């Protein structure tokens, strides 16, 4: 715990923005003190250059713990998040400050998120997705291919940026669904693990038909599931 608390001074700061940076500085000690975090696979996150990170989604605590993991390996994540969050005071400041990307679902602005994400990738940023869009609906917490949206697959095919899969487990115990305050004690074990970039090289250059995008999406979700299997120490059904 001391070692991870000490990481605060070494976290990347340039480009975080004032409010996003303040949120990180306030929440980092909270995560380190009230969780027992196990982080593995950080070598798969490139230290610079464009990268897409795709993770499973279990709890409202996920953006906090996954951000901590990515920051600890030298990258500042830019999230795609539902546009309604920009209407919440303070949250709006944090999201705007951190250059996160609003997703306007079912509106004429729906394509803006894709365009802004492409721009971030072209600028060499780390763009982070929860492909399922909301919490995993599987009652046992396994990622759902059927639930996954195709955004990260489309971006990967369009930009050829590497897609690093992340599997994490334990946040659902820290902050269960429909619970507004985290369960701090006893300290919850949270495991986060990244895997090698998903191999999509044979799909590059192909017309992004529904079948090609579906294949890319299935590979990405399979890679996330494989990391989660390792974190959980069990096989998905």
Automatic annotation (TrEMBL):
InterPro entries in the record: Plipid/glycerol_acylTrfase
SUPFAM superfamilies (UniProt xref): Glycerol-3-phosphate (1)-acyltransferase
Residue span(s) of domain Phospholipid/glycerol acyltransferase: 51-171
Pfam families in the cross-refs: Acyltransferase
Domain of life: Bacteria
Keywords: Acyltransferase, Membrane, Transferase, Transmembrane, Transmembrane helix
One annotated GO biological process: phosphatidic acid biosynthetic process
Record GO terms (molecular function): 1-acylglycerol-3-phosphate O-acyltransferase activity
SMART domains referenced in this protein's UniProt entry, alphabetically: PlsC (SM00563)
Entry annotated with the keyword Transit peptide: no
Protein's recorded name: Phospholipid/glycerol acyltransferase domain-containing protein
Organism per entry: Kutzneria albida DSM 43870
